[in-house]
Amino acid sequence: KAGVTQTPRYLIKTRGQQVTLSCSPISGHRSVSWYQQTPGQGLQFLFEYFSETQRNKGNFPGRFSGRQFSNSRSEMNVSTLELGDSALYLCASSPRDSLNEKLFFGSGTQLSVL
Amino acid sequence: GESVGLHLPTLSVQEGDNSIINCAYSNSASDYFIWYKQESGKGPQFIIDIRSNMDKRQGQRVTVLLNKTVKHLSLQIAATQPGDSAVYFCAEMEYSTLTFGKGTMLLVSP
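The joint structure predicted for all components is written out below.
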């Protein structure tokens, strides 16, 4: 079974631009979560989508948004980029049923904002 | 303000030793806990999990211990190998959201 796939692997943007990151979950997984990882703050939860609906949202400004498609693939968008948005953005998928809540992570998209 | 890089606690061991990585969690309502391993340039990799109705769970070379009284979690790695060198995170889950600890760097020397 293929793992969680994130594209692109690396991105360089400038302040004020916007960016869209993509995530393909493990086949059969209906939940996709996004996390931001920085040296200063560690791993922080952004949001979770399940069956195309946002179920949870972390403490991030409205510039951070996401969506999930009917095939469970997900995208996240960051608008009006700031230098502090430079981070590794990680996507995780999960079956999210009563027997299995394990999250499996992709390798991430490394975003650099100049 | 200026962001400061995390100064990860580091555990240095010799190959073949047993390693114990500790984690304190904050939310007494958390009912599910996971240990992840993250190697450089990769995403976190699932190692082992435990539910709050258990106090010990064993996997291949790894054991997780949960002490709910003091909100403490530990990961024991038997016969540590150089390939175990990585950053290890504990995470607690509540309402489908993982809250990660700051991580511990494990360095294994041959």
